[in-house]
Structure formats: structure tokens, C-alpha cells
Amino acid sequence: MEKLGVVAIIRMPDPMALRAVVDALAEGGVRALEVTMTVPGAVDLIRELAPTLPSEFLLGAGTVTDVATARAVIDAGASFVVGPVFRPEVIAACHDRDVPAIPGCFAMALPASSIATYRRCGGIDSSSAARVAASGRTASGGMNDVP
Fold this sequence. Notes:
alpha/beta, TIM Barrel, two-stranded parallel ribbon, 5 helices, disordered C terminus
């Protein structure tokens, strides 16, 4: 996923516009897309999009907060799952289906959550690439075992 560069995160109130947005992003070189569960009908949209995208394109689901949704988006064709918080049961559901789980946590506020996320998910969480601009420090907040 890192090699793909930008991951476009889609949050839009009009699901009918999604296809045009995806096509424009792909034309612009974006090869990874996360459709959040805040988009009306997100699971069905993932199901419609997945078979139509080029094989090098990664389609994922975001704002996944429970096991049922994780399973639904994976069944619909999501190749990665992002959650806003650390939920071990969601991670397990994803890993049971060999799909990467990327739980969110902000290390400065939730250091225990970040460490647990890092250890359970093989070093990836949705804030792992973040930088705290004002201080120049990584989001790990000085925890040596979390990059």
C-alpha cells in the first residue's frame, strides 16, 4: 500500500457521484481508494466498484467499527479495512479472511492503543504515517517500539 502513495478517502453525501470521482482519481494516478461507511450505501458501492477496477487498484473500506461491517465490506470486495478506533475483534475478523486491518489511533492521546495496534497489526495503523507538524515528532510520541 505504501508504494501506491496517496490513498484517497471518500466521504460524500451523494453516492451517485462516486463512480465519477473514482474515475477522475484513477485518471489522475491515484491507485488506492477508501470508501468510508459514512457514504450512504457504502457496502453496495464497494460491491459495484470492486469488479470494475484495474487489478493494480486497491479498494478499501473505512470507518469500519464492528465485525459485521468488516465481514460485509470484505465480502463486497474491499482489500483493506480501516477503522477509526482499535477494536481487536474487527482486526481478528479481517485477519481471519487475510485482509489487512488498519485501526486508527492517535498515539499522543492513546499511547496504549497505539502500542497494542502496532503489535497486533504488524506495524500499521491509520496514524502511523502521520507527523505532528508543529513539533516535527512522529505520531508515536517518542514510543521507541512504535515507529
